[in-house]
Write a structure and sequence with these properties.
single chain, about 325 residues, alpha/beta, Arc Repressor Mutant, subunit A, 3 domains, 4-stranded mixed sheet, about 15% strand, transcription, DNA-binding
Length: about 325
């Protein structure tokens, strides 16, 4: 059983996240996709589709979860991807090292993970590229729906607080839980005691993790409780939109992935590493996109840097998702 201990100050500091957090929602979705659990057939189909369509650039995320539990510094409440990336990058080096040590123990870590441990900028860029690639594949097509669901959940909670008070609103979020003598009890197979001691609690609904609560408990910060909400199945793309990503049939999968990576500048070597292709192949794809006016390239000494143009950004959508006709 999960038991969250409140003080009087903590009850006064309960707040509901005003907006969904893209990286929290992404990590919830990936957890649901890779950890097999019983569920309705539609959940199995969703899981299979996610795993089939994840781009190769998202591969490093698997290295961050060698035993099924990701490092805590990955879970942040940034309202946008750039904000979330900035918050992750500002993690204290001591916390990064301790969490990587916890995740890997005595198991040998890949070279880029060792670079992350040593605070190498290239390894942090690998994390950012992988998270962006996964977001664009898994969440971008349904992000508008996630935002709608979050607003609906926010309104339900606000009305419950206004009509019945904080205690009743909390237990209404998760049927089967109870708040008794300052302790919010969540039935479950594992036992965990969490003491807020004046830090407060942030409530964050997730629409991609139906199995139970996810908890972030970092020293000196409010505890974040990510709880299952919505209909119990991950949201599907808008029925009025094209079911498949329209860009790969036009550009090809590799060029589509490359164009999306170039939301931030990359060298040819960086592109090759992210896409798992040779430098020559990455350079050829960038040249083809440059000829179409989708990419610009600058040279500084022996280094070549690519970034997408305004037209390239327009083709992939403002948030990186494909535009819809």
């Amino acid at each position: 059983m999960l038991r969250i201990h409140f003080t009087a100050d903590d009850l006064a500091r309960v707040r509901f996240a005003a907006r969904p957090a893209p990286l929290q929602e992404l990590h919830a979705a990936l957890t649901t996709a890779v950890v097999p659990r019983p569920g309705p057939p539609l959940l199995g189909r969703w899981r299979g589709r996610v795993l089939r369509t994840l781009p190769g650039a998202a591969g490093p995320l698997a290295d961050l979860v060698p035993a099924g539990r990701p490092p805590s510094f990955l879970d942040v409440l940034g309202d946008t991807l750039p904000d979330a990336f900035e918050r992750i990058r500002s993690t204290a080096p001591a916390l990064v090292r301790s969490e990587l040590e916890r995740a890997y123990g005595t198991v040998p870590a890949p070279r880029w993970i060792r670079g992350l441990y040593a605070a190498e900028e290239a390894s942090w860029q690998t994390v950012q590229r992988a998270q962006r690639a996964a977001y664009e594949s898994v969440l971008a097509p349904v992000w508008a729906r996630v935002q709608d669901l979050h607003r609906e959940e926010f309104a339900r909670y606000a009305l419950a607080v206004a009509e019945h008070g904080v205690a009743a609103a909390l237990t209404a979020l998760a049927p089967g839980t109870r708040l008794h003598e300052g302790v919010w009890e969540w039935p479950g197979p594992s036992s965990r005691e969490v003491r807020l001691v004046g830090r407060g609690l942030v409530l964050l609904p997730t629409f991609h993790h139906p199995a139970g609560p996810l908890l972030q408990d970092l020293p000196g910060r409010p505890v974040v409780l990510t709880y299952p909400a919505g209909p119990g199945l991950p949201p599907a793309p808008d029925a009025s939109a094209t079911a498949e990503d329209p860009l790969p049939p036009v550009l090809g999968r590799t060029r589509t992935d490359l164009l999306r990576l170039l939301a931030t500048p990359h060298t040819t070597t960086g592109l090759a590493r992210a896409l798992d292709v040779s430098n020559a192949t990455a350079s050829a794809h960038a040249a083809a996109l440059r000829a179409a006016g989708l990419v610009t390239t600058t040279r500084t000494g022996r280094s070549v840097t690519h970034v997408r143009t305004a037209l390239g950004a327009l083709m992939t959508g403002r948030d990186g998702s494909p535009t819809r006709g």
